[in-house]
Structure formats: C-alpha cells, structure tokens
Amino acid sequence: MQVGLGYRWQAFKRVLNDMEGFEPVAMVLRRPLNAGVPVYTDLDECLGRAKADMVISFTPPTVTPQVIATCAAHQMPLLAETPPAMTMAELAALEQASSSGLIQIAEQYAMMPGHAARLAAVARGLIGEVSQVQISSTQTYHAMALIRAYLGIGVTKTAVVRAHRFSGPLVDPLTRAGWTGQTAAKQAGTVLASVDFGEGLSGVYDFTDNQTRNLLRTRRLLVRGSHGEISGDQVVRLAGHNLITTTYLNRRQTGHDLDLNGYCTYQITFGDEVVWSNPWPQMRWNDDELAVAELMTRMAAWVRGEAEPPYPLADAVWDTKLGLAIEQAVDQDQPVRV
Asked: Given its phi and psi angles, is residue 162 left (phi above 0), alpha (psi -120 to 50 degrees) or beta?
C-alpha cells in the first residue's frame, strides 16, 4: 500500500518495478486518479479495506506524523520517507508511535555501496576502535545517521551540539530540477558543527547549501579509529609490528572499455577481500537505487520476522533532533544540549 506521490517516489518506483515480490494493492492520494489499483483519499478507510503487508509513504514532513500515527493505530508496518517530522515538538509527539515498533524510516545512505563497504571495513576492525567521524556530503539528519553508523552507537541519552555558519561565493550549476545554466557566483552558506556524544565519541558536520547536488563541492568522509583511519576510499592503518599500510577500497565498475559484462557496480574490495558485493548485478542501478533495493529487501524481511528492523522511527527521531539542534546552535550562537 502506498501513501502519497512525493519526490522520492520516483526513485522507489524505478526499483520496485524491477524487483519481484512487491505488488501494490492500493494507494492513498489527495484526489482520485487512475493508478491501476484502488485509490483512496482517506488512509483509515484504505487500511480498513485493503489487505497489505506494509505501507510505504512519500509525504511531506508536515503530513508524515499523521500517517505514522494512523498506521501505528492500525498495527500496520510502515516505511515512511525522511524526515518523520519538522519540529522538536512534532518529534516528541511521535514517542507513542515509536514504541509500537511498527514504524521504519527510509534512511538509505548507510546502504549505498561506498558507505556499506566502509562500514564493513570498520566492522572488521581494520582501523580499530572508532572515536570520531567527519562528514561533508549530505544534510543534517542523513549526516547524523551516517555518523552514528560509523561510530557504532544507538540512540544516546544526550549530545552537545556546537555550530557556526559562514558564507562565501559559489556557482550553483545543478539543483534537484537539473542544470541551472548559472555561471555567476552567489553567496552560499556553510555550516560547521561538532556533536559530542560523550565517552570520547564525536562527529564533525560540514555542509554547504545544495551540496548534495552541487558537483563543485566534493563529498568528504573521515572515519578515525585507534589503529588508523578511513579517508574517502583510502585506508591507513597499523597492520603489524612497525608496519603502517595504505590500502584503497577499490570499486569494480563493469561496462567500461572492453569489460562488456553489463554496466553495474559489481563489487568493492579491500586488497583481495570483498567488502561489498552487488546482489543485483543484472540491473543498471545507480548507488541510490541499489540502496533503495537493499532497504526494501530488509524491510520485507523484517515484516516477515526474518531480520532486524532497517532503521526504526526512534533512530530517525534522534537523528532529526540532532539535525534541528545544529540549526538551533547556528541561530543562537551557543551550544545546544539534546
């Protein structure tokens, strides 16, 4: 069952059309239309009539809290788009729905091939005990989810956030709508923030306006451990007595030059060890689509009782609170305790 036709629906649609085992049974939209399945304008009515194993929602964060509450009340598993709400008060109001254990949020970044490979390298203990993650690639709640994933921590009791905003000239050649044709620089803001989780664990957040799509700004990730660090795809570590090595996470991308085995990201290796392998090599999916496929696979397995939940609402609420605390720390120019 699907609720809404928000922006992220297009990415999910491309993947679900190619995956087996996912069949739409009904849709809930603001107004009726011909969708090939029954369309309702009321979620309560749809949940009462349609027989579904799960709900996927693509609604704006102003609407999502009501979708979450309704599905929780009907004891229906839900995968809702990020973020689950917009304000601290709205997030606090989701506590009851969170306790139902039925709500998951569509946070896919940790499932993208590059991040999945690095997380596998961290889990193998290649750089020892991780204490700090620095990230400059995506906004607030997504970045917080990645920082916590690399640190290996759950929802903590408190965190202290410090943040500042700076500005500088930057051309904005691409947006969500596509190429802008711009060649003149405009002032763009950059937020630098630190998050202290306590017990020696911290995150550093660096994000420039529209950085997710502006290819004039590179994506950077640094994971610092007791025995080395991962910088992008480079792994520097203490590999033995008086031995420090530099090894790279190498992506095998088929379809280039005379590699005619289709076009896909086939695997990512660390030396002769595979740290990520594509479960769908026959599909021409980009990294985001591969992450969506992995998310949906985990969601289905969880609904069947065969796997752990992919990203529970409690985690999403915490990461969104951390993101809002960054904005609050910028506005107030003082530390914020969450």
From this structure: beta
Helix axes 140-151, 313-332, angle to 10 degrees: 120
Claim to verify: residue 90 and residue 164 sit in the same structural domain: no
- Confirm whether 312 is domain-assigned: no
Sign of the CA dihedral 224, 225, 231, 237? positive
Which pLDDT score, from 0 to 100, does residue 228 have?
98
* Assigned domain for 217 exists: yes
325 three-state secondary structure: helix
SS3 label, residue 187: strand
First to last CA, the chain: 35
Residue 269 β-bridge partners: 250, 274
How does pLDDT run across 150-206, given as a tens digit for each residue?
Answer: 999 999 878 999 999 999 999 999 998 899 999 999 999 999 999 999 999 999 999
- Amino acid 262: pLDDT: 81
The C-alpha atoms of residue 106 and residue 35 are separated, in whole angstroms, by: 23
For the chain, which ranges sit under pLDDT 70?
none
Domain range for 280 is: 110-287
Task: Let me know whether 156 and 171 are in one domain.
Answer: yes
Provide the CATH number for the domain around residue 263.
Answer: 3.30.360
